[in-house]
Design brief:
Immunoglobulin-like, 6 helices, TAT_signal, Ubiquitin-like (UB roll), mainly beta, 24-stranded antiparallel beta barrel, 844 residues
Length: 844
């Protein structure tokens, strides 16, 4: 099936190779069965003589290689041992000679050979378009052709190979193939509304509705964003929250913003309300497929074919079979915490070698040479009742972090306005005992003076076999009396220092325990405070778990010991019941949760009843996912006293447009796609992302569907189906592959004019079936389009899918090519019977 007018060139090429290979296998199976040994290319290039099997091939062997009496064109795999290098076009002449394109051969061998060998090959080819097998001997190589397996084999000694980078896990995103392009002009408006009904109280009755509005418009890479609150009937019925223009420079992994900024802070920084300009880099935001954290690196050389096992924290993460050569292993899938990495190398003789190294890793660390930063400059713009208040007071905030080594990440930060200046330093150090984090900052506030603040943390994760792990966290924080970031009116640092500790331990898969505590030393007349908690969890059965916590709090005005106990029963895959007791307010609760379905028509429900010595209450909610909206209903009622209750209704929907298409759907969170059926579908409903458990959207009465859950810079494939499409309709591949930019929209058309399948039979010039031949059909009106691949069976019958009304030129892979013409009637739908087609006399 095809979605667009034609399948992609890569897909057609792969299909062409498969069918051509299948046809040649059938045709050549009997003649080549007698060839028990591969034929050396070097031998085939020489004068055919009767020789031993390891010497030059005999004339009979050459004739057996190609018994058809005409040149045969194949596409076969080229392999270095068992390692697949790529597909190679191969011509076997009528007398058994072999030739191949020199540029293709050089392109496949260059990545695996060292520079000297590549230069020797290039010199031997001497600019010729086609080369014989003798050319590779200039680089001390030998190639063979296996007619049984229909593959080329080349033996490359380890000393001639280039150093190869072996990616143990696919951690960096590599965009292979093509993606559907986004719309040139797109946008959306989200509307999330709520209204409350209060049963009793000062504001009893139906309240004023409130609507949260957010929108985005994208044009030529620029995105205009806006957020606002609209409350009809309120004192300030409209409040604009922020407006900005965003541009993502992916080449330099940077986001530029102009307008109401959304500042990001590090260390002791605040996040001030600023209107101005900013530049920001975060790999998790702008390149989520890129692993920016440190990675493992080890180099080794294999003299013989070997199996390499990568073992991380006693867990086998991958097993590879590698040919001889030099390798650089990278991208170990490090877990947070202590990592024990081993490479176990075992060659084909049974010799074993173990490479071992240890590293402590934290997810905030950066790979050496990578950096993240943010810089925000402009005027203060505090949010008031009707929107941001743009002052004349300049402010700045920024940070910069960089990976220095695998174990060291350093950073600086600073911010300031007319009253306050602050500068800070941060460092992350991977030590044998864990990850040490240090933050230090100095500040000066007019009228209060200078101050300092520091935080030191130590984190250690102990990995054990079976996936269990213990975690240790230690922290120390101190702030001087006068310290404060931007936005501090009066410094209020009540504690001179604070100490924290936390540890968790898994006794087994069913039992764990944890402890954490915090002590704060008060300054001046402010009292010390401390809190401690000990907890334990026990999984009684596969669906029944018990947790218990004992807590001690000694804070100003309160000193008490309390307990919290919870018993959870997962009585189905989607529903659970939980009973709990909270000693802090002497309250018991019974909570029920359930989730049913996926996508459109799914819902989740929550219900809670609670009881304390002073009151009883019920709290419940129901949320439903519709095709065009998200709906929610919640209710709260308190008993045993003055009865009061509140019922809330929530609705979330969106309106999106992309290149002229418009649709209504659920709220959009980043990027989206509008899906519509082609006119040839005659109004058949199109379902988006169908699964046995549901679907995410369908076109319905509006004729368009809105897929709202696309994330920026994360590869996504949307699948579609049209169960009620006309009989025989070729829908296409049934999917769209996308790599959405920020706040982008797509217009996806399902189906096309190219939805007709033609069946018939091809005859040769003598009226005999053209058997087991592959070819392609090209639309005469659009000769530049990739051909539709087709092939014939033993009786000459063929099937060609993806045609549309008009004249088609069919060219079959004979020598010379055989040409046919097929006329698809304008009234054709579904299947067309072409009957017997004879070769065109003109061939054009």
């Amino acid at each position: 099936m095809r979605l667009n007018s034609h399948p992609t060139k890569g897909a057609r090429t792969r299909a062409y190779r498969r069918w051509l290979l299948a046809g040649c296998l059938v045709a050549a199976a009997a003649p080549v069965a007698a060839l028990a040994e591969p034929i050396p290319y070097l031998a085939l290039a020489q004068e055919p003589t009767a020789t031993p099997s390891n010497g030059p091939a005999s004339a009979d062997a050459l004739r057996r290689l190609n018994p058809t009496g005409r040149d045969v064109n194949l596409t076969v795999p080229l392999k270095d041992g068992d390692f697949y290098l790529g597909d190679m076009p191969l011509t076997i002449s009528a007398d058994g000679q072999l030739s191949m394109p020199s540029e293709r051969l050089l392109g496949l061998l260059a990545p695996v050979l060292d520079a000297a060998s590549v230069a020797a090959l290039r010199s031997a080819f001497n600019g010729r378009a086609l080369v014989g097998p003798e050319a590779v001997t200039h680089a001390q190589l030998q190639m063979t052709y296996d007619p049984k397996a229909l593959e080329l084999r080349i033996n490359i000694p380890a000393e001639l190979k280039a150093v190869r980078s072996l990616q143990v896990t696919p951690m960096d995103h590599v965009g292979l193939g093509s993606f559907t392009p986004p719309a040139g002009f797109s946008g959306y408006l989200n509307v999330r509304g709520s209204v409350d009904y209060v049963e009793q109280g000062v504001d009893n009755g139906l309240g004023d509705p409130t609507f949260l509005l957010d929108s985005a418009i994208r044009l030529s890479g620029l995105v205009l964003e806006n957020e606002a609150v609209w409350q009809p009937g309120g004192r300030n019925d409209y409040q604009r929250l922020g407006t900005r223009v965003v541009y993502d420079d992916l080449k330099h992994t940077a986001r530029w913003t102009f307008g109401d900024l959304q500042a990001t802070s590090r260390g002791f920084q605040s996040a001030p309300d600023v209107a101005g300009i900013s530049v920001f880099r975060s790999y998790s935001v702008l390149a989520p497929q890129t692993i920016a954290r440190p990675r493992g690196r080890e180099s080794f050389t294999l003299a013989r074919p070997s199996d390499v096992s990568v073992i991380l924290n006693n867990q086998l993460t991958r097993r590879l079979h590698l040919d001889p050569g030099r390798y650089n292993v990278r991208d170990f899938p490090f877990a947070q915490g202590s990592n024990d990495v081993r490479l176990v190398v075992e060659d084909d003789t049974g010799r074993r070698e173990v490479l071992q190294f240890n590293v402590f890793f934290d997810r905030a660390q950066l790979d050496p040479g990578l950096s993240e930063f943010g810089a925000y400059a402009g005027v203060k713009a505090p949010l008031l009742a009707d929107g941001p208040d743009y002052t004349q007071n300049f402010t700045f905030s920024g940070f910069y972090r960089r990976g220095i080594t695998d174990r060291v990440t350093l950073g600086v930060n600073g911010q300031g306005d007319e009253d306050t200046v602050m500068a800070g330093f941060e460092g992350l150090f991977g030590l044998p005992v864990g990850t040490l984090g240090v933050d230090f900052a100095l500040s000066h506030i007019d009228g209060f003076g200078s101050g300092y603040a520091t935080t030191v943390t130590l984190q250690r994760l102990f990995q054990f076999a079976g996936g269990r792990a213990d975690a240790l966290n230690l922290s120390f924080e101190s702030r001087s009396r006068e310290f404060g970031p931007v936005g501090t009116f009066i410094p209020d640092n009540r504690y001179a220092y604070e100490l924290g500790v936390g540890y968790s331990h898994a006794f087994s898969d069913a039992i764990y325990a944890s402890f954490d505590g915090r002590y704060s030393h008060g300054r001046d007349n402010f009292a010390d405070s401390s809190s401690y908690r000990a907890g334990m969890g026990y999984r009684l059965t596969s669906n029944l778990a018990l947790t218990a916590n004992l807590m001690y709090d000694d804070v100003p005005g309160r000193r008490e010991t309390t307990a919290f106990i919870s018993l959870s029963w997962q009585f189905s895959n989607n529903s659970s019941l939980r009973a709990e007791y909270d000693g802090r307010d002497d309250r018991a609760r019974l909570v029920y949760q359930t989730l049913h379905g996926q996508g459109v028509g799914s819902y989740n429900a929550y219900g809670e009843v609670s009881r304390s010595p002073t009151d009883a209450a019920f709290n419940g909610s129901l949320n439903y996912i519709a095709n065009r909206a998200e709906l929610g209903l919640s209710h709260f009622t308190a008993f045993d006293g003055p009865d009061n209750g509140r019922t809330s209704l929530r609705v979330g929907t969106s309106l999106g447009f992309a290149d002229g298409a418009v649709s209504v759907g659920r709220p959009i969170y980043d990027s989206f796609a509008i899906v519509e059926g082609h006119k040839s579908l005659k109004g058949a409903d199109v379902t988006v992302n169908p699964t046995p458990f549901g679907y995410t959207a369908n076109t319905g009465a509006l004729g368009t569907a809105l897929e709202t859950n696309l994330s920026a810079y994360a590869e996504r494939t949307i699948t579609v189906d049209a169960p009620n499409a006309p009989a025989g309709y070729d829908l296409g591949s049934g999917s769209f592959r996308m790599f959405p930019p920020y706040r982008s929209g797509y217009r996806l058309v399902v189906g096309s004019d190219y939805s007709i399948t033609a069946i018939g039979r091809l005859l040769d010039g003598d009226g005999q079936p053209l058997a087991l031949i592959a070819g392609g059909a090209t639309e005469v009106a659009k000769p530049g389009q990739p051909p539709v691949v087709l092939f014939t069976n033993r009786t000459g019958r063929f099937g060609a899918s993806g045609l549309r009304p008009g004249r088609w030129r069919i060219e079959m892979g004979t020598t010379p090519p055989t040409v046919y013409f097929l006329d698809v009637p304008a009234s054709a739908e579904g299947f067309v019977k072409a009957g017997d087609l004879k070769p065109s006399a003109s061939g054009g």
